[in-house]
Amino acid sequence: MGDRQWFVLYVLVCLEVGIFLLLVPWSAIWERNYFLQAYPSLRPIVLAPSFRGAVAGLGLANVYLGLRELVQRRRRRGAPGVPASEEGPGPRAERLGGDGRGREEVLAASEDPR
Questions:
Q1: Which of 85, 82, 62 lies closest to 72, judged by CA?
Q2: Helices 49-76 & 3-23, crossing angle to 10 degrees?
Q3: CA 106 → CA 10, 53, 65, 67, 98, distances in Å?
Q4: 9: which residues sit within 8 A by CB, 6+ positions away?
Q5: Fewest CB atoms within 10 Å of the CB: 7, 24, 27, 51?
């Protein structure tokens, strides 16, 4: 598979796992699962609101990572509607010293006797 397909798969998995972890701890599925029936001593821990919140927080982190990757990929490709100032200095600035000045400014500063 190509780079694009792996990227789409990564984003979809992040979003799917994130949404699952975000919603399931607060549903009836969470209260009636195999592990709670097989290990009743886990029941007070797994059903505690703080534990459910921690699992939902992991889900939120997964959703954030997927969306962040999507936004970064879009910015790197130069999507319309994204201002150039948000993209960072880019490769041209790195060639010229990394500070984002234009070639004329770099040349003028190197010739300046100050």
A1: 82
A2: 160
A3: 41, 53, 38, 37, 11
A4: 1
A5: 27
Q: What is the pTM of this model?
A: 0.62
User: Which whole-number Å values give the CA distances from 61 to 26, 32, 34, 103, in the listed order?
Assistant: 17, 25, 26, 41
pLDDT in tens, 57-110: 999 999 999 999 999 988 888 756 555 555 555 555 555 555 555 656 655 666
Q: What is the largest CA-CA distance in the chain?
A: 81
Question: Which distant-in-sequence residues (6+ apart) come within 8 Å of 103 by Cβ?
Answer: 96
Residue type, 81: G
> How far apart, in whole angstroms, are the C-alpha atoms of residue 59 and residue 65?
10
Domain boundaries, the chain: 3-82, 85-114
Q: Let me know the angle formed at the C-alpha of 81 by 76 and 86, rounded to the nearest 5 degrees.
A: 55
Helix (H, G, I), strand (E, B) or coil at 39: coil
